[in-house]
Amino acid sequence: MRKMGLKRNSIIVRLLLSMLVVLLIHTLILSANIRYGGTIEEKNLFQPAERIRFYVAISLIFSLVLGFIVSILIGMWFIKPITNLVKEVKSSDPEMPITLTKTNIAEIDELARSVELLSTKVAESAAELSKIVGMMEVPICAFEHDLKNDKVLCTDAFFELTGAEREKNESGYISAEYFYKLLDEIRRCPEPESEDVYCCEKGGCDTRWLRIKVQKSDSKILGIIEDVTREIMEKKKIEYERDRDLLTHLLNRRAFQAKVIKLLKGEEDVKTAALVMWDLDNLKFVNDTYGHDFGDQYIKTAASVLNELSIYNGIVGRMSGDEFYAFIYGYEDKQQIKEIIKRVQNKLCSTILKLPDGKDLNITASAGIAWYPEDSTSYYELLKYADFAMYESKSGDKGSIGEFEKPVYNKKILFFNGKREINNLIEEKLFDFVFQPIVIAKTGETFAYESLIRSKSAVLISPRAIVTLAGSQSRLYDMERITWFKTLETFKKYEQDFENAKIFINSIPNYILSDEDLAELENKFKTDLSRIVIEITENELTDERVFIKKQSLAKRWGCSLALDDFGLGYNIGIAFLTFYPDFVKLDMAVTRGIDKDINRQNFVRAILQYTKSRKVKLIAEGVETKEEMDTLIRLGADYLQGYYLGRPTPQPKKISPKITQEILESQINI
């Protein structure tokens, strides 16, 4: 390059010297003409200078043009090897080591060798990273798509994870068309409740789950694919154990509820559907006779039959020990569902279980149906209605199927809900006891307090309903025990407020505490038992054994007996012939409106005449007006009780001074 520049400069110098020589010759000629010829014209005189100027300008222009052309030619000659190297790099296979052609230009060849070395190191680093990932046994792969090319670069694990086929050259490149088609196929099966996770069954492999993460830019698409099969399987196992009944493998209560509620709130058309409740008959008998292991077999066999509802678009679950639910949906009318239920019911009841003693036992179950949307669109109401329909069918013919009927439900709802409520109340002892004053009719002083039960339930409020339902569930003894113990516990809590007043306790008719409970009661409240008045009813006189025992208790404790609800029985006289109570409580049905009813007044006069002759004190219950109070005082009642005098309160209270004054004034006016 340096030699060529010197050669070019020497040519220019030679041209300039030639022009100078020509100029010198021309000047000498002009001088000779002047010397020998005399004068010369002005234009001829400056003509040589003009020519020299012209030639100099031409020489400079020529020199510049020539230099420019020569520079371009030299640049092209110098750059060509670099251009060829760039083309080689672009056309090289990224999968293969880069080898570049020598240019015989020391600087450029050194650069090319550096590029080759860098390429080799990058490939080696990538290979080492792949080995490290492989050693970690992390099932993950990556891909890259340069949007200018029609091929996608994938790591080796990509082909194993997705089941993709390699191209013939076994490189990591596959066509973009094939790649995105494969990706779309995988994404057709998204895993519910898992972000960017898809179920894949490509290449004849076992089912696996892949998580796909993609990052896009203007020129490239990068992504990774991770095999999360183990993670999803563990998640499914946890969900299965959480959602399934361990004995039958049906859905448990929580999972059944969640699935049906989601279905009812979702976009799928439920159409006509039925929520069915089955209750296995005779499970208690099987457990008691053959043991719980065989009882479990009884349950599993029934569950296997009921699970066949799944093929009829049904969701099946086990609610508790012997209760199963099914939600069958997606049908045009009820008749189609009825036929399915009947078919399964017939199969269930025809299933025979071989007992340990060699006998055969038919599985039987009663069922109840609530219809969607006819009966309700609410899951909780459907559940309640199906439960009601099942118990209705079970109380009739066991092994039958009953449908929910709203009119029947409305009539029986209190009793139906109360059966479960009463058991809960008794188990948890959810009762309070309040105290209503019983007042001496002559002085207005508080003589005693009657203990009255109050439940903490919003459903069961009436004491009569509580006793009735407790009787239907064979829980009256529990009620008797709760009444005695909680009344006396409350009495001890407010003992100072009671002062010297007695305590009237409503003993459950025909029930008495066991010897063990009586011993506990006497041990805890021995000093207070003499203040008790045990209230019994006419019905109790039918069980002579219990009545005699209560009489003996009263004698042993030194307490009193009272005949409650007097005046309601159809055989009042016999009650007095059987025993002589200390007190008779006139029922509110007699006292209500007595100030306006002469017949009631005459009836009370007759009773008072009889009780006074037997030295029995009469307590008038249900006094709610001043007029009723004044009439009963005038007739000669010994004690008064009712809302007008004082309402029941948790902490015993005396009647107001105003009422006391009215009682005294009424006595004066007799």
Walkthrough of the structure:
The model is unreliable at 1-8 (pLDDT under 50). With 670 residues, this protein is α/β, with parallel strands linked by helices.
Keywords:
670 residues; alpha/beta; eight-stranded mixed beta barrel; six-stranded antiparallel sheet; 52% helix; 18% strand
| Cα-based radius of gyration, to the nearest Å | 55 Å
- Spatial gap, N to C terminus: 151 Å
Largest sheet data: 8 strands, mixed, barrel
Low-confidence stretches: 1-8
By helix and strand content, what is the structural category? alpha/beta
Oligomeric status of the shown chains? single chain
What is the tally of beta strands?
21
Helix content: 40-55%
Briefly say what this structure is.
The chain has 23 helices and 21 strands. The protein is an alpha/beta fold and 670 residues long. An 8-stranded mixed beta barrel has the order 14-15-16-17-18-19-20-21, surrounded by 4 helices. The chain has a 6-stranded antiparallel beta sheet with strand order 3-2-1-6-5-4, with helices on both faces.
